[in-house]
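Ticket #4471: complex job returned nothing on first submit. Input attached below:
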Amino acid sequence: MTRPAAKLYNIAIILLAFCGGVALEKTGTIAFLTDPSNYPELMRLLFQHFYLVAVSMAIATALGLFIGIILTRPKFKRYSGIVMYVVGLGQTIPSLAVLALVMSFLGIGTKPAIFALTVYSILPIARNTLAGIRAVPVSTLDAAKGMGMTSTGILIQVELPMAMKVILTGFRVALVINIGTAALAYLIGAGGMGDWIFSGINMMMTDKLLAGAIPVTLMALLADFLVELLSAVLVSRGLRLSEE
Amino acid sequence: MGVLHFIEKNLHQVLFLTWEHIFMVALSLIIATAIGVPLGILITKKVNLAKRVINSANIIMTVPSIALFGLMMPILAIVGQGLGKVPAIVALVLYSQLPIIRNTYVAIKNVPPSLRDAGKGMGMNKWELLKEVEIPIAVPVIIAGLRTAAVMNIGIAAIAAYIGAGGLGVFIQQGIDRVYPEMILSGALLVSLFAILVDGLMAGVEHLLTPKGIQLEKRLAQ
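Support reply: We reran it on our side without changes. The output follows.
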């Protein structure tokens, strides 16, 4: 029953890829991207984009992990409800609005953009760190305590490894959103691939528009895939086995 | 308070843009539900297809919104709809598919087999089972998916102002172009408030549509 449907699906994917390729050639995107005179510009924008994402993600990961971990410590546990409520509220705020708000207070340029991207990326990481550590079974924690582990030891050797999968999911969500939002950072003067996308839209230049949109899309898909690979390395084998 | 003053002075435009925003989000949500929920139910019966459909939706979700608008412009330009509300609504429908399909699929998959057996034992056929047992139990989770989609759509619809779709994003777009801080702030605050409001409303709907028995069960579990 399902086999013809699956086959149809595969054919559809191949057809789509083919049509996509033809469309890219027809609109002149391939010519635009392979034009040597566009190379320095492409490299500059790609680097800007990469820089925005890398810096903001590094800060956001450090802060997000810190917030998530500190909220599971006995001393700060009681604040976790209110902090997570605020985080949830923050996540409903649209990315463009966050950029616009940051711009009206901090002005334009790379620094405000990195600030906005960082704030926006902390949320999923902190939430998933908290949820992941909370989900560690009490019996496992008791076993660790019974073996005489200190609370730092438990955190590093038990809680974080067990929460790793959920934390990485949060990291992946944050990274993909970050790459997409970094394309909007052009609007507040931080450059990046958004430059070509927005110029392309404004000037109705399809080749420029696609030359901006496709690298960003590939970047997001690649990041998604790489984090998937990373989770195969970082999540302990025992946990992966028990899941299967 | 520059923002309040701005909103007061431009009340007419504020109301119009809010209406445009609501229109885009609501229409796309209705279309997305009409596609996503039946598809989600269908793939619970065809396991082979489930992974492929969810993966495809996942890939669409990964594409950055402004890039998706960019990719669709030349395609929809063939039928003369490259700019404006049509590409915006198509993009919103595409983005909504993942939360709606995934939640529908997971919710129906998670209906306890014992309940399904009970239904069968009462002589229900496949359709009755779906209508009387599986869907009512799955509704809260499906609504949760719609809630995620709605909040996300409000944010993406704001970006759609750049492809001429209107909505509250217009304030942000024109405010940035004209370096008019009150306009930017008004746009950003209104969109944020709208998203928070819809999130709260959908949470209420989620609660209302949960069958009484399940509500009771949850309360007892606490």
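Chain A touches chain B through 44 residues (CB under 8 Å). Closing as resolved unless it happens again.
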